[in-house]
TrEMBL record:
InterPro entries: 6-blade_b-propeller_TolB-like, Hetero-Diels-Alderase-like, SGL. This is SMP-30/Gluconolactonase/LRE-like region domain-containing protein. Residues 208-300 form the SMP-30/Gluconolactonase/LRE-like region domain. Pfam families: SGL.
Length: 353
């Protein structure tokens, strides 16, 4: 998720002044174990991830135009696979697989703390077929690089952020405009797919952030409104029915960001400055903090989450973290942005990537 630093700091200031409330008791088996897969250099705003069918993980940062490939089985090795600086862009946000091992990825002229790249956000196609990490060394096998194609510059966009594949389209959330675009991946034609109050910013700087599609249902996190919603959509990604609000943020500095949907239809969502990972039951009635807490660096400002896809890690949730760059933990602690893994024990993935 990409947010305005000042707003978050202001929110935290207000919260720190408020009286504290009793801590909820922790259910048995929680928190779930968290391990660091890879820590990026300090100051990295690690933003999003996509898990490949071979188990490797592509990671984006808003603070870098380099897309990085990692293998969670090989901690410590991270290999740049493409540098969008070539396209004149400086940061990256969403990434999603739209055809087998072919990914849609967003890059824009983002400068942390200065500008969000209004009018620059560009959707690229990144064909990873034949590209993998070498077993022998920390590099790409055979030196094979992905084939990258510019699909569309969305000139009207303010801050394109989350992506979800939907038939011939990829849907892209515009967090600062508070709406969702559809982009035809073969022609590059794009238009607004959904512009609705539930996605909008209302009086906050941020609207719709993470989006996922399961079947004909679009799930969307609205960071500004602190709600997670779902809505049925048509083949064209337009809304086809009423919205259901699944969950409201509970913590005072919590803001939903990206999330993953598990095999039961439960949602695993990070809460950004809340520094937690929350599981929401499919009916939305119960929210449980499963890892992290406000004062902890375990889930240090989570930005996105995806389940593993291998036989040994399908119950592992991979989470990207910003490290407290936007909202330092306890007001002062900033750690390097990272990819961490959370052992969910049994929930597994629903098969959307
Ligand atoms: C990406 O490209 C830019 C411009 O060509 C360069 O300055 C930067 O160092 C590159 N990044 C890496 C790690 O190669
Ligand atoms: C979205 O809807 C709002 C409110 O109806 C309207 O003001 C705005 O122009 C719309 N934006 C686009 C890009 O369609
Ligand atoms: C934040 O403060 C709390 C309470 O003083 C403390 O328990 C916790 O360890 C601190 N967290 C960090 C990351 O320093
Ligand atoms: C976080 O630390 C503050 C004091 O800095 C304390 O009042 C609060 O209870 C702590 N919260 C958690 C979830 O540990």
């Amino acid at each position: 998720m990409v947010r305005l630093q000042l707003v978050i700091l202001a929110t935290i200031g207000a919260v720190r002044a408020a009286p504290t409330t009793a801590e909820p008791s922790t259910p048995a088996g929680l928190p779930l174990p968290v391990s660091t897969v890879y820590s990026f250099p300090k100051g990295s705003f690690v933003e999003n991830l996509a898990v490949r069918s071979n188990g490797e993980i592509l990671v984006t940062r808003t603070t870098s135009a380099e897309l990085v490939l990692l293998d969670p089985q090989r901690p410590g090795c991270a290999v740049p696979v493409y540098n969008f600086t070539k396209a004149g862009l400086s940061g990256m946000t969403g990434i999603t697989e739209y055809a087998p091992d072919v990914f849609a990825v967003l890059a824009g002229d983002y400068h942390f703390g200065k500008s969000v790249g209004v009018g620059s956000w560009t959707l690229f196609s990144l064909d990873m077929r034949g590209v993998k990490l070498s077993q022998a060394a920390c590099g790409l096998a055979g030196g094979n690089l992905p084939r990258v194609r510019k699909v569309a510059l969305v000139k009207e966009s303010q801050l394109l952020n989350g992506l979800a594949a939907h038939g011939k389209y990829v849907l892209a959330s515009d967090t600062f405009a508070g709406l969702i675009y559809r982009v035809d991946m073969s022609t590059g034609d794009y238009s607004v797919a959904i512009n609705a109050t539930y996605l909008s910013k209302l009086k906050t700087p941020h609207g719709v952030n993470g989006i996922r599609i399961v079947g004909d249902t679009l799930y969307a996190a609205n960071s500004g409104q602190s709600i997670l919603v779902k809505v049925p959509i048509t083949e064209n990604g337009a809304e086809a029915g009423p919205y259901t609000v699944i969950a409201h943020n509970k913590g005072p500095v919590d803001h939903w960001d990206d999330f993953a949907v598990d095999s039961e239809g439960g949602i695993w969502a990070v809460t950004a400055s809340g520094n937690t990972l929350v599981r929401i039951t499919p009916d939305g009635n119960t929210q449980t903090v499963v890892a992290g807490n406000l004062n902890s660096t375990a889930i240090a400002e989570g930005s996105s989450a995806q389940f593993g896809r291998g036989s040994c890690d399908s119950n592992v949730l991979y989470v990207t973290t910003v490290g407290g760059l936007l909202g330092p933990i306890n007001g002062t602690v900033v750690i390097p942005g990272a990819l961490v893994s959370v052992d969910t024990e049994k929930r597994g993935a629903v098969g959307i990537y």
